[in-house]
Amino acid sequence: MEARLLRQQALSQTRRALVLDAARAVFEEQGIEGASIREIAKRAGYTPGAIYSYFDSKEAIYGALLAESLDRLNAAVDRAQPEDANPASRLKAKALGWFGFYAENPRELDLGFYLVHGLAPRGLTSDLNQRLNARLHEALQPCERALLAAGLDAQGAERENTALFAHGVGLLLLQHTGRIRMFRQDAKALFDHYLSGLLARIARH
User: Fold this and answer.
1) Do residues 143 and 195 make contact, with C-beta atoms less than 8 angstroms apart?
2) Tens of pLDDT along 62-89?
3) What DSSP string runs through 66-89?
4) What percent of the residues of the chain are helix, what percent strand, and what percent coil, each to the nearest 5?
5) Which end of the chain is least crowded, N or C, by CB within 10 Å?
6) Residue 21 belongs to domain spanning
């Protein structure tokens, strides 16, 4: 009985993963507004009714995709280990953790910033949007803790962490769209430069 239940759970997880893979492809091609449960089901090889046994809407599918993406982001930040316990080393390692994740996975950047969804979380419930935002914030918290450990007060650490994230995301978007080439610059080099300047400012604090 237990073995059969485990097989059923494994099959259910496999089918769910196929639905999510199909939905990701459809969202990338058509955006969430152009996508439909029928098209997602077709790509996954299921009927629309089968999709509804896992998700009640295409927005719910999008939310699940984004939640898994944020889990991978957090895992990448967790793996980013500093050279030593110095706050500056921790800040650099953790910042490069999230920056590197999005630089290497531009489709995750699309998901994370609703770029296949029109730059707004339309269709996501307020509760789901808040939970997803909280998960993103978790990935940025190690940088903020490093800033606090470096001597900034809570307000200053939050401000600098926000600015760091905004700067990094701007560079990632320039890289993702190819616009960085018009400046003959490299996004990673510019992010390193910004980090170095931030660390120098903190050292003088």
Assistant:
1) no
2) 889 989 999 999 999 999 999 998 999 9
3) HHHHHHHHHHHHHH---SSS-HHH
4) 80, 0, 20
5) N
6) 1-56
